[in-house]
Request: fold
Amino acid sequence: MHVAQLTVTIVGFALIGWVLWYFLVPPARGTRARRGEGS
Amino acid sequence: MSDAAPRAAGVPAAAEDGGGDGARAGAAVKVSFPVVGMTCAACVSRVQRALEGTGGVRDAAVNLATNKATVELERGAVHAGELVAAIRGAGYDVGTESAQVAVEGLRFAADVGPLEAEVAAVPGVLGAAANRATDTLRVTYVPGLVTMPRLERAVAEAGFVVAAPIAEADPVERERALRRREVRRLAARAAVAGVVAVAAMVASMPLMGVGGTGTADLFVRLVMPLHHALARALPWLYAVAPQPLKIALFVLTLPVVFWAGAPFYVAAWRGFLHRSADMNTLIGVGTGAAMLYSTAATFVPGVFENAGLPADVYYEAVSTIVALILVGRLLEARAKGRTSGAIGRQLGLRARTARVFRDGVELEVPAAEVQVGDFLSVRPGERVPVDGIVRSGRSAVDESMLTGEPVPVPKQEGDVVTGATLNTTGAFVLEATRVGRDTVLAQIVRLVEEAQGSRAPVQRLADRIAGVFVPVVIAVALFAFVVWFDFGPEPAAVWATVSFVTVLIIACPCALGLATPTAIMVGTGRGAERGVLIKGGQALEALAGVDVVVLDKTGTVTAGRPHVTEVLAVRGPGSAGPASEEERARILAAAAAVEHRSEHPLAAAIVAAAGEAGAELPEAADFEAHEGRGATALLGAHQVAVGSAAFLIELGVDIGPFTDAFETLAAQARTPVLVAVDGEPLGLLGLADPIKEGSVGAIRVLRRLGLEVVLVTGDVRKVAIAVAGETGIDRVEAGMLPAGKVQVVRRLQGAGKRVAMVGDGINDAPALAAADVGIAIGTGTDVAVEAADVTLLAGDLRGVVTAVELARATMRTIRQNLFWALVYNVIGIPVAAGVLYPVAGVLLSPVFASAAMAFSSVAVVTNSLRLRRFAPTFAT
Reply:
C-alpha cells in the first residue's frame, strides 16, 4: 500500500503543478500581455 | 448614411471617440452583438481576451447577464468575420438572426450565385440563400454587425432591386426569442437528466450502505430512512444481483452524459484546448471522474478488488449533479429574462398604429410607417404614436412613462409632444417630427440597453478572481484527493474520489459572474422607469460614491423661466426710481431689441416683458453676445449694451445711479440686468426666477444622505445667497462663467471630493463632463445628453435624490452578491474537501454540492431582482 500512496502523492502533486502551469502561465508564443480592464 | 462608414464591420450607428493617435488609427466604432454559450465569469474573461486579441480591437466588454459583447474597433481595421472567428475560436458562438428579403427580378438560376455571393460578402453575414420560387433571399447574419440598409445596398450592387425595405427584428423581441429558445433547451435537458436522476437514485438504493463512505456522507444519512422504506416497497429491486443493477444504471446514465450534460463536456474540452478553465471544466472533470470510476467499477471490478478497493458506483451522483446544474441554469435563464424586463415594458408603451392624414383622408396605418412631416390625429385616451408638434387642438398629456411625473402636462398649438405618452381628454392634430429610431422613446431604450450591457469597475475584482479561480480549485481538489488517499480511513480511494468530485462541483464561479451585471441591469432598468437614465455601470458606481453635489441655479434649482418684475429708471445723478409707463416701454424696447437675438433665458424674459408692455422693437445690427455677461448691438445710430454690472463697467458705463437699487434687488433674489445707451445708463431690470417645486425637499434629502450641496451660478452673489437661503444650501459659488463652473468642480475634486454636477446639459456641459458624475436635467425631449452620465427626464431635483438612492442601493446589492458568492466558495470548498471530517465526522456528498452550487447562482440573481422593488424617497 505504501507504493500506491507514494505513487498517488507524486502523481497528484505533479498534476497540481501541471494544472496551475497549464492554465495560469500564459503560453509564450507571440501572445499579448494580459491587458488592463480598459478605462 | 455615408457609404464609406460601414465597410469596416458593417457597423451601424458608429460611435466616434476621436481619440485616435493620428490618421492611421483614425476614429473608433463600437459594435455590440450576441454571444452564445457563456455560463460564468471565466467564460466572460475568455471571450473578452479572445476579442481583445483580435488585431484592431481597442477594447472589448462582455456581459454575462445580457450575453452580449461590445467591442470598440479601429475603423476599417477589423472585418466582422474576424470577430466571429475569434469568438468561435474561444469555444463559443455568436448569436444569429435571419431576415427574409424580397428581391425583384430574380428570374434565372444564374442570378442566384452572384446575388448570394454579393450578400454573403457583407461583413457580419454568415449565409445567404436565394429562392427563385418565392423571389426571396434568406440572409443569416449577426445582429449588431450588419445593418439592413447595408444588406439592401449589397442586393443593389448585385444588380437587383429590393421589393420592400427589410424589416429588422425588434431587438427586444429578438432577445425574448433567444431567451425562450435557451429556456426550452435547458428545460428539455433538465427534464431528461431529472427523470434519469430519480430512477438512478432509486435503482442505486440497494447498492448503498454497503461499504464506501457509508454513514459519514451527509447525503447517504439523509436518504437512509428512504432506503428502508424502499426495501419494503420494492423488494424485487433488492433481489436483483448488484452486477446487473450496475450495468442497468450505466445504461440509464448514458443519455445524461452524452446528451443532457454534453454541452458541459464539449465546452470543457474546448476550454482545455485553449488553456482556459471555467465552470464547465469543473463540472466536466468532476462528473467525468465519477463516471469513469463507476464505469471501471462496473466492467472491470476485478482491478478494484485486487487492489483491496470496493467497486462502488456513482451513477446516481452523475445524473443528479447534471440535473441540478441544469435546473439551476434554467432558473437563472428565466430570472435573467426578468432582469431586462424594464426595456420590454418601455417598448410595450409604443402605439402600434397611428391615424395619418393622407390626401385629406384619415387612414389608420402601422406606427412604423409614419414619416416625418405627416399630420396625425390623436384622440382622447390614445397613445401618441411618434414625437411631434401640436398643430391644432389642445389636451393634457400624461408623460409619466417617461418622466415619472404623474400630473398630465397641458399641450396646445406649438407644443412638443413625445411619442408613447398618453393623451388624456382632448384631441389634437400632431405633425410628426421624429419617427422610428429617432424618437425619444427609441433613444431611451437604446440608452438603457447600452447601460444594462455595460460593466462596472467593481466587476474587475470578480474578473480577476474568476481568472485564477478554476485552476486553483482543480489544484485544491487534487490536493484533497492525495490527502484523503494517504491519510484517510479505509477505503481511502473512495473517500479521496468523493472529496475530489465534491470540491470540483461545489466550487462554481457562476455566482461571481452574475453578481455585478444582474444588479446593474435591474438597477438601470428601475431607474428608467422612474425617469432616471443612467449611462452605465461606471456612472452608477461613481454616483454611489459621490460626496458633493454641485447644483446649477438657473433651470436646476429654479424653474429657469425668469420674468421681469422691476424696471427702474435714472432719477438724477446718484439715484434711480421705478420707471413710468413710457420709460418702462422705452427701456424694455431697447433691451429686448438687443436680447431677442440671444438664447439666454433672461433674454427671453426681457423680450416677453417688452411684448407685454406693448413696446415696438427697433431693428438691431452688429449683435454681439458676451457669454454669461451680456450683449451689445447697434439700434440705429445708438450703441446699446445689456448685461451684468461688471459687463457694463467694463464697457465704461457709470452705473452709479443704480448702486443702491442693485443691492436691494439682489437681496430679494432678483437678477439685476442693466441697460445702457451710448455709454450712459438707461435703466435697470429686476428678473425673478421662481424656485422649482421639489427643490427645497430634494436638497433637504440630499443633505440627509450625507452629501454636501453647493450652488453654482453665473448670477450675482447676492441673488445666489438669497436662493441658497430659501433652499437650505450653505455653500455658494456665484458669478461663474461656464469655465468657472469647471474650476469649481476641479477645485472640489482637488480637495479629494467626488463631485456630481447637476445642470441643464447645454450651458453646463463642460462642468458636467468635468465632474465625476454629470447629471443633466432634461426636459423630457433631449435624452442622450452627451456630457451627462445621468439624465433626469422629469427635470426636477427630486430625480437627483432618486438617482443617488438607486445607485447606492445597486452598489449595495452588488457588494452583497460578491460577498455571498465569495463566502459561499470560501466555506464550501474546505467543507467539500473534508476539513469538517476530523472534527464532526461529516463529508459533503457531490449531490449536495451540486444543489448548493445551483442555489448560489439563483440566490445572487434573486437578490438582484429585489432591486425591482426599490422605492425612492420621492415616489411618484
User: Anything to note?
Assistant: Chain B touches chain A at residues 49, 52-53, 59, 61, 275-277, 307-308, 455, 457, 459-460, 463, 468, 470-472, 474-475, 478-479, 481-482, 485-486, 496 (CB under 8 Å). Chain B is about 50% helix and 20% strand. Residues 1-25 of chain B have pLDDT under 50 and may be disordered. The two ends of chain B are 41 Å apart (CA to CA).
